[in-house]
Amino acid sequence: MRLLVLSDIHANLEAMEACLAALPAHDVLVNLGDVVGYNASPNEVCERVRAMGSSIVRGNHDRACSGLTDMAEFNLIAAMSAQWTQTVLAPENLAWLRALPRGPLRSGELAGIEFVHGSPRDEDEYLLGASAAAANLRMPGHADTIFFGHTHLQGGFAYGDGRIRPITPVFPTDEGIVEFTLPLAQRERYLINPGSIGQPRDGDWRAAFALYEREGDAPAQVTFYRVPYDVAETQRRITSAGLPERLATRLKLGR
Ligand code: ZN
User: Fold this and answer.
1) What is the pTM of this model?
2) 150: left (phi over 0), alpha (psi -120 to 50) or beta
3) Distance (Å) from CA 255 to ligand 1 centroid
4) Pseudo-torsion of CA 98, 22, 148, 10, nearest 10°?
5) 47, 105, 205, 235: which has the fewest Cβ within 10 Å?
6) Which residues neighbour ligand 1 (ion) by CB within 5 Å?
7) What is the CATH number of the domain that holds 120?
8) Measured in angstroms, how far is the CA atom of residue 124 from the centroid of ligand 1?
């Protein structure tokens, strides 16, 4: 079984198209939310995500940009982009965003795996540190492998023998399409972030996603990918939409 996990596309059409062209073969596709917000192609990205027909959980930007929640938790720049997104979204995309389900999401064919935007206990929690990750991984009633987004940091946390350790992909080069494979130990529990397609914040500007593979009784593994894209075109669209310049400059910094 090959499960592809995408997250935090954030209306970045060029990053999404580059990833679509580079996707490895897969049987199942799951999207961890934040389809829109920040970048300037919300309708184009909504249409592509809807056409892919994947399972999806909603993100905080999906809620704010479709008017489901206010922007009290957003900084000024995020709020400006959410407001702009709300005004340009086509009615059918607004309705689709409003109807997205809250995580955690489970699917019958994916036993032992769960999908959330923020964390298992709170769809808006940022899983940035070991203590928050451990608290979530110690919660009973959740799957052993949990995919999460929201932080835009590719990697995650492993928990075993009472200890938690961070997972940090290491790539051979800063250029081109790269991948890093992590074998999963059967007695450990995992919180895995595929990274953000549309606005990475881990210092690598390339679009990020992940592939989970499991065959029979063999140990599962996760492969993290980074894919370069036409970031100059994304920046041009942000500028011509009149969105804050900071949203364009941060993309190339990966921050
Ligand atoms: Zn996000």
Assistant:
1) 0.97
2) left
3) 12
4) -40
5) 47
6) 8, 34
7) 3.60.21.10
8) 10
